[in-house]
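Annotators were shown the component list below and the corresponding predicted structure, then asked to write short factual statements about the assembly.
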Amino acid sequence: MDQIVSAPEMAMQASARDQLKSFVERIERLEEEKAALAGDIRDLYAEAKSAGFDTKALRTVVRLRKQDANERRDQEAVLATYMHALGMLDGADV
Amino acid sequence: MDQIVSAPEMAMQASARDQLKSFVERIERLEEEKAALAGDIRDLYAEAKSAGFDTKALRTVVRLRKQDANERRDQEAVLATYMHALGMLDGADV
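Structure shown to annotators:
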């Protein structure tokens, strides 16, 4: 492993190495925050469960609301495209 | 659909409904933050790519570092278990 890594390692400039390190550290920090949020969400479902809610139904509700929101956004995007094509959104531009 | 939903809906107390609503909204807020972080991570990889880094190798590096960290933690946990079993961690307790 050492032999495989050492050759390209030597080929990388110090500045590129620092930049790489910085990217990796920034990614890791964000991944940690994301994992922490995933933990918070898990805790929240557990809290809901001990309050007597069915977590499976709760997950389904959250998913359905997200779908609805996405569909609404899609619908709005299509509508905006049509309205733009028909010059109905160009009031400010024209 | 309306018929299926209306019966259990009426069976739920107003206070439980508020509580349910609160759970759903809190979950959705955390899910949004998580999605935003996922977007930030994607952007960061894109930034690294345009800086000339190979994102596939970068993802592998991040994964390997995480594995190493997890293995180190696992090792430490095993070590602590053994040390505890041998009374090597009980200095303060005994």
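Statements collected:
1. Chain B touches chain A at residues 16, 19-20, 23-24, 26-28, 30-31, 33-34, 37-38, 40-41, 44-45, 47-48, 51-53, 58, 61-62, 65-66 (CB under 8 Å).
2. The helical segments of chain B are 2-11, 14-50, 55-85.
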